[in-house]
Amino acid sequence: xxxxxxxxxxxxxxxxxxxxxxxxxxxxxxxxxxxxxxxxxxxxxxxxxxxxxxxxxxxxxxxxxxxxxxxxxxxxxxxxxxxxxxxxxxxxxxxxxxxxxxxxxxxxxxxxxxxxxxxxxxxxxxxxxxxxxxxxxxxxxxxxxxxxxxxxxxxxxxxxxxxxxxxxxxxxxxxxxxxxxxxxxxxxxxxxxxxxxxxxxxxxxxxxxxxxxxxxxxxxxxxxxxxxxxxxxxxxxxxxxxxxxxxxxxxxxxxxxxxxxxxxxxxxxxxxxxxxxxxxxxxxxxxxxxxxxxxxxxxxxxxxxxxxxxxxxxxxxxxxxxxxxxxxxxxxxxxxxxxxxxxxxxxxxxxxxxxxxxx
Length: 359
Ligand SMILES: [Zn+2]
What we know:
This protein has helices spanning 15-25, 27-38, 47-64, 66-79, 83-88, 188-196, 201-208, 270-285, 292-298, and strands at residues 8-13, 108-112, 123-130, 138-145, 151-156, 161-166, 171-175, 218-222, 228-233, 238-242, 247-250, 317-325, 330-335, 344-347. The chain is of the alpha+beta class and 359 residues long. The protein has 2 domains: 8-95, no CATH class; 101-351, Penicillin V Acylase, Chain A, CATH 3.60.60.10. Helix 1 (15-25) packs parallel to helix 4, helix 3 packs across helix 4 and helix 6 (188-196) packs antiparallel against helix 7. It is globular, with a radius of gyration of 19 Å. The N and C termini lie far apart (47 Å).
């Protein structure tokens, strides 16, 4: 299975039409994911209670991102699923609001620009760690919604995006962080969707800072100018960490002093600390030589195996990895563990900005 390329689905139209096309294409996969959600309700809640809580998140989501809610309604229609259940799949914060589901997460990120890379290009590299069962339902969606720049994102069954880039040269990778200030609000998966629609870096950054968010990821956002930020976020705060000396790494714990107090449990970040420092060392040791091919090797690193950057065991394992070159609008994406995969190259055509944006 690790050798099978992740399928690519191309969709185009209004937000609702895009959603319908995704839902139709991913119907069995989306139905399977929701069935698994039914079976993994937290011990302190019932499915009905989860749906009721989801309605509170929906009110915030609809207020801030009505067009993305339309897209989700389209997915529900296309997949022949109840919208409330599709929306609940976007409310990740609801599934980890107690200590039962904290820790053991994953994803390791590398970023490099300028003198660090072989051609001076801006590059992001990302291992995406999830529960093993999710590898089966991976899909790459190439989405042209309304007048937004076209984007390409990796998704589980069409229900939310994990990483991607768009035709305006905005790149997104990032990490799950467990914060202690999760609240009712805009689900962080809608923030990710907004970042993928960004026409410039400022719009991506504003998405990370949106008011009344329920929680946040550490979103790593970048553009082709080499501007790279690790937006260490929680529900109520955010520290934009700027790339230093042309390299950056991040894993699943807060590293900026202002954000450390939001860490849900600092006694459960050991694996993340090791992956973060290991990634920084690999970047330093390969400074000036970094290329897509070299990133493929670095992401297959096995220090602290099996809970390494190329993660083979634990609650999560690496289900896919991606390398982005934002100057060339190219991506290399591989299913499964980086040490076993075959990367497939993808690309986007450049977006044509509005006339008054051209300099
Ligand atoms: Zn491996």
